[in-house]
Amino acid sequence: MADDMHLPPFPAPLRWEQPPASWEHTADGRLTISAGPRTDLFISPQGEPPVLNAPRLLGPLRGDFQLAARVTVDFQATFDAGTLLVWRDERTWAKLCFEYSPQGQPMIVSVVTRGTSDDAHSAVVDGRSVWLRVSRIGPAFAFHASRDGSRWDLVRHFAIDAGDTPLVGFVAQSPTGAGCTASFEALRLSGERLADIRSGE
Fold this sequence. Notes:
By secondary structure, this protein is mostly beta strands. The protein has strands spanning 15-18, 22-25, 31-35, 41-42, 51-52, 56-60, 65-73, 81-89, 92-100, 106-114, 116-117, 120-124, 129-137, 140-146, 153-159, 167-173, 180-190.
């Protein structure tokens, strides 16, 4: 799994930093990742051992950017998710998740890790697909979600010490279940700075 992977529209190759149970990249641009059982990215603020074994496909992005994808998840168990990830190292990262809640509802969840992780739940989603977007704006990041890929709702605005060239990409996870499959399609990557995080654009 160490070979570089070219995934348009990324300008540089991506690499499996943690291998999946299986994966597929189809001619129409859809990336599908299957996570094995008990896979997650989380460092509990309650002091439980870190879990950092979720499969992740990441590549370097420098400067401002906007990365968006339509994410579809085959939800089976609580906390199954498809995720966009910004990664510096095992103690510094942030993820925007389309995740299955303990109440049995798909929803938008974000986690920012600075030594330990937090956990913030956002809107419930009707269905198994949603658009996610992560943007870098100088030293800060913004997470957004959308039903249609056009009108965006702010999920979170935050800063982490991501360095000049963080790794950015895609994750599937199944923290409590036997496995989960997430697909990412209609990928969009722009080097244009997001002008207004609350405008809906």
